[in-house]
Each structure stands twice: as structure tokens, then as C-alpha cells.
Amino acid sequence: RQPKRLADYQAPIFSITHTDLVFELDATATRVTATLTFKRQQPGRLLLEGQQLKLERVRLNDRVLTAAEFAQTAESLEIFAPGDTGVLEIVTLLNPEQNTALEGLYLAEGVYCTQCEAEGFRRITYYPDRPDVLAVFTTTIIANRNELPFLLSNGNKVRESRLPDGRTEVVWHDPYPKPSYLFALVAGDFDHLHDTYVTSTGREVLLEFFVQKGALARSHFAMAALKRAMRWDEQRFGLAYDLDRYMVVAVDFFNMGAMENKGLNVFNSKFVLADDTSATDTDYFNIESIIGHEYFHNWTGNRVTCRDWFQLSLKEGLTVFRDQEFSADMGSPTLNRIDAVKVIRTAQFAEDASPMAHPIRPEQVLEMNNFYTVTVYDKGAEVIRMLQTLLGKAGFNAGLACYLQRHDGQAVTCDDFVQAMQDATGYDLQAFRRWYSQSGTPELSVKEQFDAATGKLTLTLAQQTPATADQQEKLPLVIPVKIELLFHDGSAAQQHLLILDSSVQQFQFDNLPQAPLVVWLEDFSAPVKLSTDYDVEQLLAIASRASNGFARWDAMQQFWHKIIKDAVQQSALPVLPEALLTAFRQWLITPLADLALTAELLTLPDFDTLAAHYAPIPVDALLNILQETTQLLSKALLPELLGCYQQLTTPAYHYSEADVGLRALKNRCLHYLAFTAEGAKRVTAHYQAANNMTDILAALHAAQHANIAQAGELMADFAKRNEANVHVMDKYFNVVAANPRDSVFDALEKLTAHPVFSWKNPNRVRAVYGAFSQRNAPQFHRKDGKGYALLAEVVTKVDAINPQLAARLITPLLSWQRYDDGRQQQLIMLLRELASLPMLSDDLYEKVHKSLP
Length: 853
Ligand code: BAL
Ligand code: ZN
Description:
Elements: E1 4-5, E2 14-24, E3 30-40, E4 46-49, E5 54-60, E6 63-64, E7 70-72, E8 76-79, E9 85-94, E10 104-108, E11 111-115, E12 135-143, E13 150-153, E14 156-162, E15 168-178, E16 185-188, E17 191-198, E18 204-211, H1 220-237, E19 245-251, E20 258-259, E21 264-268, H2 281-296, E22 305-306, H3 312-330, H4 333-352, E23 364-365, H5 374-407, E24 411-412, H6 414-425, H7 434-437, E25 443-451, E26 456-464, E27 479-486, E28 494-500, E29 504-509, E30 517-519, E31 529-531, H8 536-545, H9 549-569, H10 578-589, H11 595-601, H12 607-611, H13 619-636, H14 638-647, H15 657-673, H16 679-689, H17 693-705, H18 711-721, H19 726-737, H20 744-751, H21 762-775, H22 777-780, H23 786-799, H24 803-809, H25 811-814, H26 821-835, H27 842-851
Parallel strand pairs: 2-12, 18-19, 19-21, 22-24, 25-31
Antiparallel strand pairs: 1-23, 2-3, 3-9, 4-8, 5-6, 5-9, 7-8, 10-11, 11-16, 12-15, 13-16, 14-15, 17-18, 20-21, 25-26, 26-29, 27-28, 27-30
Helix pairs in contact: 1-2, 2-3, 3-4, 3-5, 4-5, 4-9, 5-6, 8-9, 11-15, 14-15, 15-17, 16-17, 19-21, 23-24, 23-26, 24-27, 26-27
This protein binds beta-alanine and zinc ion.
Zinc ion binds near residues 293, 316 and 319.
């Protein structure tokens, strides 16, 4: 199987100016008539992509073509003599009911739905299915209105009429030229919430949400979030919406979180539906952030799109950055930064260390779906953030305005984006561009020298990026390093930005009153690993005194790494210094004004965060140390934990920054208290008194982790109360799958027989097996390999149903190099078995073959 390469990019031979689609919907035989107005751009063949299509007819201008006038393969259709301009009509038949891959047009739970990014449109009709072919789309949907009252597509509704045969025909027209991946069609019966929004340009926009019957009340928060996002983009970047209608449809069968189709977003319903009895604080956060993300794509992705899929980060890194900025403005900037950095330090650094390592602009791809990754998205957003740090907010805004103005209506590259930033600001970004082509996690080391006689501080920084699976040679990068200098004598702290652009560099500061304590990499100003040789006292001093909340949290993270690393080296339990207990007591007795930050300061890094610092990962030692340290802290801090827990009284549920913080801190205390003698009583009482899903889940997780006797009873009660709500049942599945004891295997087996579970629904499969492999390190990484074998079995089964989902699930099995010999052997054996499967999808093939030794 041949990968595609960025270096082989060629501009399209034909453009399509108009794409006219007619869908006659039918569960097993939907007929699609595509009328394409084409124009030659350069010499060459008219070759269209298509997959799993039944071709009925091809007409060129006024003539039906004979079999000799075109050629068809499993993946393409070639028209032999198209001329330079013309109109091609292609009629295809689809079977939406059988489409369990959920790409192209599919029918699930009575709803017809499309997903075309990245290459799903070729499962609807033969087409130049690439993002640099932009056409104006007109879409006609014909269906039985009694069964499918809502027939939706992109753009504006042009007309609706009744056909002589009783069916209804609805016509949509999208005036903005777009690539095929932004096409969408949805047909079904929904509850319908509508509202209006007046843009800064004076346009009145109809906002519509289409959700499952009975769920209307659960869509109000998402509607309000959409309006906040629309206002924010106007205020922050001067960007207003450009159509008269913005629609969001929520469906339960969806591979992604959501999709930004022009004027018709399709959302995974878990990121739309929420009310106080079913959603956690995290759910509310995610809904606002993803509603924002898809809306922001209207400019960064839709109005200006990607030339080819290697440029995916052009729209995704930028749009994640925009949604992060939005969330920070809507809530706590500190907590938002902490959460974003956790993603980088766990999943993204792990991806860099895996066989799938790639730069944010990959250079070769077999299956594009495999590159919707934390590297392209989240590291991509960090690269955009570094640009903002280097250019300043005003410079960055000017750069974005230049980019959008210069390229409106075009399909462009990451280089075009950086060029616009450079042209708008005059800042030379030539060397910075290396972040787009170089993969891996840069490692920074630092040295400090202070001359007390002159007050001169010399900081020496060195960078190097270890080789990755895809790239051996690494060059120095431009790395913005924010620092803060703290002084013991009460002198005002100083903030500085160091720009490291060579392998080793020195920076000097004069006239300092005394030797400062340097806070490194404030705000995680670059996606790098930075090590210092600070002792625990220095780290605790930063955690107590840095002016920046993120830096305080980060110092605690480094503190735990140090303590735990020492313990691993000595094969002992960590010794908790008295200074740590003093700091913890202080935070529990007098929490900071930011309660959520206080909760974070009191939280140990999780297994994945710790694991990123080891090769090979000492799995058993880390798990044991984490468990034992939690117990040591519970015991040492019991009175303070109890005092803090009791003083935080829970108000009626409200999703606000203050209340989210309060719940986070209270539930952090509960987590520790669960391990104490009265833990069972307290957790049970917490569960029974809870008036919201955040507290209920905190109780269930605490019950399970501390293995309290009532855990089973609480879980059964929770399942019984919530069996009617699939999203809450997913949370139940999550908790069951995270059970760190041997009994989890039987429990998982039982879950798959649960009436709510379906192998065809990605949300259900992820809720069970995604949670098992990502949130249950003790059982997933068992020495005997039983956890790995279970996931391999599930991946094999799911690949036949939904390859995209299978390829996501397999990720934790790929990085065998990171583990000890025993685990390596088990993982390699499973990967070999997967590689030998006869019908492996491209999605799995690419990942498995890249991983094999
Ligand atoms: N474009 C795929 C879904 C998203 O990133 O918004
Ligand atoms: Zn996106």
C-alpha cells in the first residue's frame, strides 16, 4: 500500500465551479445524481476519486457515455475525453444502512448523516475529493416527509416543494465555494431549538439546533455558548458570521467530536446535550469549547482552507488555539493552561516517543484519518501560541487579519500562514518555520550563574531534540522561554522572554539585588521538556510564591517527578518532606482564592504524565508509588482534609468558575479521605447528598479507587437511575472500565451485553474500551498481558465495523519500546497477529506496520 507524500503535491488538473447534488434518500439504495461543471486548469487526465460506490450512469454534456468512454477501478473513475470545459453527470447508488464506518452517508437510529472530512465525500459520488478544489454547491434532498421531517444541507434554504409522488424536495444553496470535505447532509426527525443573533455587521442570523426527540431542554447551554463564541470572535479578532443561518445537529453515532461543515455543523451529541442532572463541570466546559471550535472554523478552515491534507494543522492548530483563548476568556486562564499542558505532556509527548511520531505538518500519509492527532491539533496550537508570544497579541491579530484577507476563498499552506504573520509584523520567521517540519520533543537544559559582587546573572540554555521514529536528524528550533525572577528580599519579581534560537545560548541580567530563584518556562511558553536541578525546597518555594498560577502548579509537578524518581531509583516509597506537608496543610486550611488551582496544587501527576520521564517505563513501581503516596498523604493530612472538605458547602448546582473550583477542591479532598478509616461512610454520604453529576462521579471514582465495601452498591444504584440517558450510561461504563482490580475483565464482558451497548456506536465502544486502556493503567498494563490481549481482540473486532475507531483504539498498543522486556514481547506478539489479519483496513495497516520491529 502506497503512502502519499507532501513532496508529490500537484495542483488540480480540473477545477469544479458548480456541484449540483440530488439525493433520493433510501435506507439501502440512496440514489445520488451529481452534476459537476468542470474547467481544465492544465493538461492531464480527468480522474475522480470514489469508493464503495455503485455506478449507474455517466453523462458528459448531453450524452450518456458508453463503457468504452470511461474507466472505473475500486477507487476511481476516469473520463477519457472530457474536453476543457463541460458538465458531467454521475449517478451512484449508496447503502447508508450498511455504512457502519460512519464515513460518507450513513443511516443510524433513523437519521441520515454525512461525515466527509477528510476523504468521505468519495463514498457519496465520484469527485476530485481534495481540499483545493472549491465549488459552489446546490443540494436537493428528496424524501418522505412523514419519516424525515427535517431535510438539511449547507447554506441557505432555497425552496421546498411537494413532488407528485408524495415525497418532499428541499433545495439548499451555499454561495461560498467550498471543498467537498465541508459538504453535509442530515435528514431525520428532531426536536428543534431556534434563536437569532445579530452580528457586528448587522446581519440577523437564524441559529438552529436539531437534537434527539425529548432532548430540547438539554440544548440551551450549547445555544448560549454559540452566541458567546460568535460575540467573542467579533471582539477578539473582528470576525463575524457570513450566512443567514447557522445549524447544529446532534447525533449519537459519530466518529469525531464534531464537524465544521459550512453552515451545518454535525456534533457528537455528547458535546451538545447537557443539563444539571446529567452533565459534569467538564461536560459543560467541553461543550462550550467545542461549540466555539467548530464556529471558529468558519473563518479558519472554511473561508480559508487547506491546500492539501498535509496542511491540516493550518486549520486545526490555529482553531484549537482560538478555542483555547475563548475558553480562557470565558473561565479561568490558569486552569485552561494547566489542562492544555497536561494534554501535551501526556498524549503528545507520548506520540513523539511512538512509532507514529510526525511533525505538525506530516510528510507522508497512508490513511489521512490517522493524522487527526494531538500533534497536529494540540502541538499545532502550541506553535500558534509561540507565534503570539513572539509577535505580541497586537502583532498576532494583525498577522491573522492579513492571512484571512489575503487568502479569503483560497486553499493554502502553513507557509502561507507564517508568511502573512511575517509580512504583517516585519518579524523574521524564517527559522521559526522549522517547527512545522521537525517532529519530536525538544529537551532544554539550563544553568544559572550569579555574581554576587556585580549582581550579574548569567543563564545558559541548551537545546537538543532526540531522534524520532520518522526523523533522525534534528536541528535547533526558535524557542520562546518565559521566565520569572523571584527575590527573597521582597524585591519585585521580574518577567523576561528569552528567545533561544541556537543549540547553546547565554542570557545576562545586570544589577540584580540578589541571587534570584528562576521560574522557568512560565505558562509553558514552548512545547518542550525542561529540566532543572532544583531541590525540593526551591520547587516548593516556587509553588508558594510565583506570581503566576500556572508556574505554581508546574513547580508541584516537578516536585513530584523528583520525589518519585528518587523513590523509583531506590526501589522505595517516597519520603514526603515536612515542607511538603506544611505546604499542603496551608492550602487546605487557607485555600487560595482560586479554589480550582488549589485543587490542582494538591493533585499528584497521573501515571501517563510520570511515564513520559522514563525509558523504559517502570510500570509497577510507578503504580505502586502513586497508590502508596495517596495513602500517605491521606493519613498525614486527615484533620486538614476533613476541615477543608467540611468548610466547602455545596450550593445549588450552577456552572460558574467559582462553583467549579469549589467542587474540584471538595472532590479532591474526598479522593484522599476515601482512603481513611471513615472513607466508606464519607463517600457514601457524598454520593447520597450530591445534587449534580460532578459530585456523583467523584464519589463513584473515589469508592472504586479506595475499594470501599459499598462501591458495588453505589454503582448499581447509579446505573439503575440513569439507564434512560446514554451519555450518563457512558459515564457509568467509564467508571466500570477504570476499576483497577482483576474483576474488571468480567465486568467489561457484562457491559457489552448491556442493552445500551452497541459495537456500532463509537461513543459506547470508547466509553468501555477507550476508558479501560487509557484510565486503567493497573489492569491494562498487567504483567501477564491480559489487558493488552483484550484490547487487541477488541481492535480486531471493531476494524471490521469501523476502521477509524479501531485505529484510534489501538494507540496504546503501539509504543512497545517504552516498556520492559516482558511487556515488549507481549505487545510485539499482538502487533504481529494484527498484521497478519487478512482484511486489515488502511487505518490499522498503517499504524501496525509502522510499529512492528
Ligand atoms: N475538522 C474535524 C473536526 C474538528 O477538528 O473540528
Ligand atoms: Zn477542528
